[in-house]
Amino acid sequence: MGLSNQKRFEHLVLPHLDAGYNLARWLARDADDAADVVQDACLRALKYIDALRGDDARPWFLRIVRHAYYDWCGRNRPADLVHDDNETVERAADLVTPGPEQAALRRAERGALLREVGALPAHYREVLILREVEELSYAEIATVVEVPVGTVMSRLARARGLLQRSPLLQAVAGYGPKA
Q1: Concatenated DSSP letters for 136-163?
Q2: Which of 28, 103, 122, 139 has the fewest CB atoms below 10 angstroms from its CB?
Q3: Taking the chain (179 residues) in consecutive chunks of 10 residues, what is each chunk's mean pLDDT?
Q4: Could you tell me if 108 and 63 lie in one domain?
């Protein structure tokens, strides 16, 4: 006899709750909003647990989190859904002045990087987080965001390029193209 839907959900999906929250947090850029998104995603995952084939629930659940975010965003922040792959992301002009100690420099670099990642459009931010934080393969990311692997690769390259060219990161840590 198979597991009940609730037991199957607990066994297969709940271990990936942190990954779902991480993705929602980066997409929503707010802890409370991310919690709402993950709660909605969990309800959806429980409702549709029968649609999960096999035991690899991580990409399946992250796809649900992503859909829950975009649905939430459409209701709460429709302006965030504008996709413009051909435009440079608008950047904050504030430069962080690193302190004299290495610890202060590391904090400044980390803060600058977090601000810059947070400023990326959602379609770049999501693939970057899924790859660099959640360590999903390109194929898994393609499954989660429902695009071809080549699109995942180009979005990652574009996101990394935008970060590399960031004036804020260049000023803080000397990142970016060399003259």
Answers
A1: --HHHHHHHHTS-HHHHHHHHHHHHHHH
A2: 103
A3: 79 94 92 95 95 90 95 81 42 38 61 77 90 90 94 93 74 50
A4: no
